[in-house]
Amino acid sequence: MSTEPICQACGMQYAVARDDCPICEDERQYVPQSGQRWTNLETLRASGDYTPRIEEQGPGIIGVGSTPGFAIGERALLVQAKSGNFLWDCAAYIDDALVAQVRELGGITGIAISHPHYYTTMVEWAHAFDVPIYLHEGDQQWIGRPDPAVKLWSGTTLDVAEDLRLINLGVHFTGGTVLHWPDGEHGHGALLSGDIVQVIGDRTHVGFMYSYPNLIPERPHVVRRAAELLAGYRFEAIYGAWWDAIVRTDGFEVVQRSAKRYLAQVIDEG
């Protein structure tokens, strides 16, 4: 029985019942005007409102989520790397049918999540596949449901496999992380960014924000550092947090020109 409480606004699953949701009360998110409301996976599954959604998003990258999306509504990405399938980010809804479909694709060897807004039901996913969850220690305070499956890492990079690297950019959250897959896009490289590097409507650019719903810009020095870190990697495509939110070509140049444009528009505190 999956009865641990889940915030209906952000999708965070907590270990025990509570009245408040720290994720929603943080200035990067918000408490809905209707107030904080709660549910759990058993209730969501019994409702019959959600069905699994598995769709190809790019070469060797499969979107994993539900129809409709729940809470924030992001989808996860299954990376079919040579080292084994790896799950990037986390979709809040999970049931036996969705787990079975992912198993048919080869299962997963591990999970990594870009930032706390997408932690959601990560422990359910880890238990379903008996795999670790890699989270940056900078965001440890936001973990709603502690579990031995959670493996905290520190520093700027972590190789979760010989062909998959996590990079802590620090955008949006202190632990804000992206995943670089050099073999993606048929060897031209792919960057899986959640909304640490946000894929926007104009695919010639990306966005950098401290808070998206509350329209708080990211600090200039953080964006500058992120661009400098990503200058050391090559990637053709950028996969954001939403279905079909993808920069298909010139991803490296898109990030660099976007950072340059951003820094030209904001006050630099040095």
From TrEMBL:
<dbReference type="InterPro" id="IPR036866">
    <property type="entry name" value="RibonucZ/Hydroxyglut_hydro"/>
</dbReference>
<protein>
    <submittedName>
        <fullName>MBL fold metallo-hydrolase</fullName>
    </submittedName>
</protein>
<dbReference type="InterPro" id="IPR001279">
    <property type="entry name" value="Metallo-B-lactamas"/>
</dbReference>
<feature type="domain" description="Metallo-beta-lactamase">
    <location>
        <begin position="73"/>
        <end position="233"/>
    </location>
</feature>
